Amino acid sequence: MHCPFCRHPDSRVVDSRTSDDGATIRRRRQCPECGRRFSTAETASLSVLKRSGVSEPFSRAKVISGVRKACQGRPVTDDQLAMLAQRVEEDIRSSGQAEIDAHDVGLAILQPLQELDLVAYMRFASVYQSFDSLVDFEAAITRLREESGDGSSDRSAAGADAESEAGEPAGNPNV
Ligand SMILES: [Zn+2]
Known about the structure:
Shape: elongated
Protein name: Transcriptional repressor NrdR
Function: Negatively regulates transcription of bacterial ribonucleotide reductase nrd genes and operons by binding to NrdR-boxes.
Keywords: ATP-binding, DNA-binding, Metal-binding, Nucleotide-binding, Repressor, Transcription, Transcription regulation, Zinc, Zinc-finger
GO biological process, one term: negative regulation of DNA-templated transcription
Radius of gyration: 21 Å
Number of domains: 2
Family: Belongs to the NrdR family.
Bound molecules: zinc ion
């Protein structure tokens, strides 16, 4: 990183902090040549390739507005939508891809939405998976019945784990 003042080719990091949402790292740097300080921001790039062929930056707001429509009249709060969008972004980023197909963003929404509200999930899935007959609805409902089985009572616990590190066992006494 060149010094923006004197173009010296090197700089020293004097401070580094992560933004509240964890998506950006800001670094305060100092030039060893002229001594002046400047800031840099580092964000992993993640773009969405739309069907039109246009690529645009991933946006949690767009995830939320898409899911909000499916949640009309359902008991889903803004906080829950925000957490869903955060989880979708984390899932996509953890795949390591810098660019993802818009259709795959829709697919990444399905699982967390299924855990949040089954009616909203069915509305959303019918659009994203192009249900075009009652058979498709029947197949989806049968699968949901099988999946919800008897483990449905601990669904609320899943959200509480959202902040812990992936793969880290919750409540491990050795941590
Ligand atoms: Zn300098």
